[in-house]
Fold this sequence. Notes:
Layout: H1 2-21, E1 39-49, E2 62-65, E3 68-76, E4 85-95, E5 103-111, E6 120-126, E7 130-137, E8 144-148, E9 154-162
Antiparallel strand pairs: 1-3, 1-9, 2-3, 3-4, 4-5, 5-6, 6-7, 7-8, 8-9
Family: Belongs to the plant dirigent protein family.
Keywords: Apoplast, Secreted, Signal
Main location: secreted
Amino acid sequence: xxxxxxxxxxxxxLLLPGVLAFTGPPEQSYPCPCDCPPQKETQIHLxxxxxxxxxxxxNPNEVAFQGWAADHWLLTGGPDPNNNxxxxxxxxxxxxxxxxxxxxxxxxxxxxxxxxxxxxxxxLGMFDGEWSIIGGxxxxxxxxxxxxxxEVPKLDVHxxxxxxxxxx
Length: 168
């Protein structure tokens, strides 16, 4: 009898994935399980300026060690690093592979401009591609989002925060 029940249990686990597969495709979006506030999106177009401590660089904003670098990069509203400084990208990047694009970054963007002064976002990701925004402070409290770029230094920043203007 124990063998028959063990076999039936095994058969149940064996067939369960097939049964679940025929229940239909999962929903594309899942409703918020709680009373989630509406989200607002802030889009910012930034330029990141990285000046490694090389012999020909007079004002370096990163210090490199073996396989990693400490960063204090400039964030500006335009391509000129001397005008319209919006903030700083403070953090580090680590070489995680064999190519020049295999860098993992961890930064806190500290905004200095009048609109978002003192606000921050936490940014993580691989150098080549898209970066995640996993948190923030002040104007970007409870932020999430992403940063897209085709080629650094131009960044397309999308920050999602709870929309407190609709709060009761």
